[in-house]
Every structure is written in C-alpha cells, then in structure tokens.
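Lab meeting, item 3. Inverse folding demo.
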C-alpha cells in the first residue's frame, strides 16, 4: 500500500482489477451476449417458424379452449396455468411461447401446446439440440467445466472486487469526469487512458447496478442466513407451494371474457399473458390474471400485477397476497439484472452498456502492460518474462474470446443435427477455439497477433450471415422481407460486430506500419 489515501486507492484499483481482469472480461462478454437471449435461441433453432403478425382467436376464446382441455385431461390437478401467445414471453418461462397457446397442470407440470387460431392440439416443435442464448446467461454467472455452485461463488468474488475497482477508480482518478470530455488520439499510453476513462464514466451507473444486482441475484448462496429468514417470513403466502391445502381444480363456471376485459382495463390493452386457476381448502376457487411472468418491475404479486376473480361468480376479489418491502426490493433488483421487463430499445441500451464494460476492462488490461513497459524503457531495462507473457495473454483472452463466441454460432450450423451431445459440443467449440487462440497469441509476435486475431474475429462474425444463408432458410433475404426483426437483427448484429473488429484490426495495422517506417518516410506521406 502507499502512504497517501489516493495513492492507496490507485494501488488497490490497479491490482484488484488485474487479478480479476480476464475473468471479469469473460463475465461481461457472455452477460452482454445474453441481453438478447430469446432472439439468439430462435436464431440457433432455425426449425422454428418465423414470428410474423400472429393470427389468433380472441384471448377469452383461447382460454376457454385450454380450460376445456384441462378439465378433460387434468381433473385432479391442484393448479391450472394458461399461457397466452405474447411477444413478451421468455424462452425459459415455463414453456411459454410467442406463437402458441400453452396449458399446464400442477403439480405434475404436464404441458400441452395449441394453435391459437383454431385451438387444435399441436405436437412440440422438433428443434436441434442447443443451449441457444441461455448458454451465455449460464456462462456469465456459473462458468463452465466445474460445479455450478463453485462457479457462482467465484463470480461472486469477481463481482465484489469489480465493485471495489469501480469505487477506487473514481477516487484515484481525481479528474475522471473532466477527462471524460477529453480524448487525445495517437498519444500512446495517454490515449489508452482516455479511452479507459470515457468507457468507464459513460456507463458507470450501469456497471454499479449490474454488479450489485448480480450479487443480490444469488443472495441465497452468498448470504444464506438472511435469505432463509426472508423466505420463512413469506412462506405462508398462498400458492407458494402445493401442499395439503390445495384441492383439485374445478372448471370455472363464470365466463372468462368479462374477467379478461376487467384485467385489461387495469393492466393495459394487450398486456394479458397468463391465467391461473386454483382451489385451496376453505377458500373459493379463484382465477388469477396477469401480464407475462417477469415483465413487471418489480417482479412481484400485488394488486397492480395480479387480478383475482371468483371462479364461480366472476366477481373480482381483493388480493390476499402482498410482498413485504424487503422482498419487493429484492425482486426489483433481480428484475433489473435480468431485464425481462425491458422493451427492445432498453435492451439495446443494456447491450451497448455491456459493450462499454468490455472495452473498459480490455483497455484497463492493456494500459497495465503499457505503463510497465514505459517504466522499463525509462529505466533502460528489458521487460520481464511475466510482463511479456501477460501482454500476449491479453491478445489471446481479449481478442480471442470474441472469436470463440463466433465459433459457438458456427458450431450450431455445422455440427450434425442428430449428433449425440450436440449442445455440449457447441460449447466445447467455443472453449477449444478460445484456448487455441490463447496459445497462438503466446507463440506469435505480439503486434502481429493483435492484428491477426482481431482480423479473424471480423472474418468469423462477418461470415456468419453467409453461413446461415447456406445452411437454413431463415437468412436475411427472408427475415428482412418478412419483417422478423428478431432473426434479422441477429444477422445484422453479427455484421456490426464484424465491422467493429475489422476497424480495430485496420487501425492497429496502420499504426504499427507507420511506426516501423523511417521518420523521413512518414514526413513525406504526411506532406
């Protein structure tokens, strides 16, 4: 540590960041990729139909079809759940679909799907085995090739140190907000510091929010005793679990159309996504209507998000559940982290903020190397082996990981559809590609490795739309014409990332080409 407070904070910021830098970069890259988890999963399952303007019967009619089916096939169930087709349904939301009507029965968790226009029962869609966009979400909070609880704890330690680095960085850089408006190109270390400052400050509130809410998300691992106390305090809430008080569900006698109309008047037109029917001992059979699960902020049951009716008379009933302020805050923080409530513009803001975080970490790691090289140059000593190794590992980790991500999408299209363990091999492809590029960067001259790996990233992402066109019928020529912006956006994002990596590779190549020329030659070119 140093004798002065700001110097101590600078020391802690530097070494705390270096210790976690590469792993934090991995967490940010995969977390950023999970912002469009649903659309990524759709792209990686090209057997699914395009999401066009959905032709469907009125919601009340769809719900009645589902109730008729459940009354015949699940008369002993303790709870029925109907998920209406909705654009805000998420891929892992209990089998919810944007294009199909879904009926479920509990506690068996039986699941049936129907055509929302005709009510005809449909077979489950047969799609290739893949973890899709969910893989990025899992990777960014529990890593891979290890016990998931161990991964969660490791990422938790990284998040704590990252928060400490943010705080110490603001303290150490006394002119950080002034420097935010300053960028000095072609100034070597000074330029890298300017980029680091700009990317740090531009999305600083987002970084604090996403790291803090990530810790809150797994509070039951990091703070088990408070989490257990909170859970026990709300364990008596209705419908938390299926116990002896739950009775077989009778089919509601009141029509659902008036209930849905009343619920829409409160929740908003077109906001109805889910319907529950259940019967508990000593209480009337009830119908609960809500938005698609997870789209509220906070994500909690209350009178503003769940509308309850008497299943016999159709009369609206007062809410018998309410979350306490502590749990409401907890659910709000979790919802902020997952961003299921977010519309596409807000999701893009999450995505761009995540990219800024990736740049912040990458520039910080590069800056660490440049500072020590400059110090060795002033002292007239050669850089140590450790410093040279870190510099090359920076290339493999920071530039190689994006290539590994691109390899994940390539594997999705190239691996045989009937291959055993196909989903796992897609992820093996990501890590194998990344590992080989780390080795490649260690063995190649550093400057050449930067340009070559970044150029490879540009090529890998830029060819994905072409690969998609050659292997499926869901390419840009189809998706753009049909107006399916979820799938089209995935291909266009690949092209955007390719352009970004190509620009970075070209910029470094030109810079180092000029640096290798005699000074007179450079003056002549400038003239």
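The presenter then showed the designed sequence:
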């Amino acid at each position: 540590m140093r004798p002065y407070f700001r110097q101590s904070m600078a020391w802690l910021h530097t070494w705390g960041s270096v210790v976690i830098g590469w792993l934090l970069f991995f967490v940010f890259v995969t977390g950023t990729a999970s912002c469009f988890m649903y659309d990524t999963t759709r792209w990686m399952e090209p057997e699914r139909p395009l999401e066009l303007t959905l032709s469907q019967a009125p919601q009340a009619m769809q719900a009645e079809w589902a109730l008729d089916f459940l009354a015949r096939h699940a008369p002993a169930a303790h709870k029925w759940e109907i998920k209406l087709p909705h654009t805000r349904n998420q891929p892992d939301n209990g089998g919810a679909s944007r294009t199909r009507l879904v009926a479920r029965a509990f506690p068996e968790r039986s699941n049936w799907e129907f055509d929302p226009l005709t009510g005809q029962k449909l077979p489950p869609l047969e799609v290739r085995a893949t973890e899709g966009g969910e893989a990025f979400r899992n990777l960014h909070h529990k890593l891979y090739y290890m016990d998931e609880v161990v991964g969660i704890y490791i990422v938790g330690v990284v998040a704590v140190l990252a928060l400490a680095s943010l705080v110490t960085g603001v303290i150490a850089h006394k002119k950080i907000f002034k420097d935010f408006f300053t960028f000095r190109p072609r100034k070597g270390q000074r330029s890298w510091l300017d980029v680091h400052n700009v990317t740090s400050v531009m999305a600083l509130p987002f970084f604090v929010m996403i790291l803090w809410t990530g810790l809150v998300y797994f509070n039951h691992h990091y703070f088990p005793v408070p989490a257990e106390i909170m859970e026990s305090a709300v364990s008596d809430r209705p419908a938390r679990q299926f116990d002896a008080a739950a009775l077989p569900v009778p089919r509601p006698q009141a029509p659902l159309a008036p209930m849905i109309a009343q619920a829409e008047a409160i929740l908003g037109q077109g906001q109805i996504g889910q319907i529950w029917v259940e019967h508990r001992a000593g209480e009337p059979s009830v119908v609960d209507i809500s938005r698609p699960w997870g789209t509220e902020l906070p994500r909690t049951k209350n009178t503003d998000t769940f509308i309850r009716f008497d299943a016999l008379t159709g009369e609206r009933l007062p809410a018998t559940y309410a979350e306490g302020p502590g749990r409401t805050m907890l659910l709000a923080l979790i919802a902020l982290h997952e961003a299921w409530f977010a519309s596409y513009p807000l999701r893009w803001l999450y995505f761009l903020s995540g990219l800024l975080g990736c740049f912040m970490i990458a520039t910080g790691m590069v800056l660490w190397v440049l500072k020590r090289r400059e110090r060795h140059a002033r002292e007239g000593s050669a850089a140590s082996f450790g410093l040279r190794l870190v510099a090359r590992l920076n290339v493999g980790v920071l530039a190689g990981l994006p290539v590994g991500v691109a390899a994940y999408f390539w594997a999705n299209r190239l691996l045989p559809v009937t291959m055993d363990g196909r989903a796992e091999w897609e992820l093996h492809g990501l890590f194998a590609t990344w590992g080989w590029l780390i080795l490649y960067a260690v063995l190649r001259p550093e400057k050449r490795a930067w340009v070559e790996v970044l150029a490879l990233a540009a090529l890998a992402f830029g060819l994905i739309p072409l690969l998609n066109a050659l292997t499926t019928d869901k390419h840009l020529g189809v998706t753009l014409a049909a107006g399916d912006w979820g799938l089209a956006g995935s291909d266009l994002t690949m092209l955007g990332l390719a352009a970004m990596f190509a620009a970075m590779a070209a910029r470094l190549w030109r810079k180092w080409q000029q640096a290798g020329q005699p000074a007179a030659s450079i003056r002549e070119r400038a003239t």
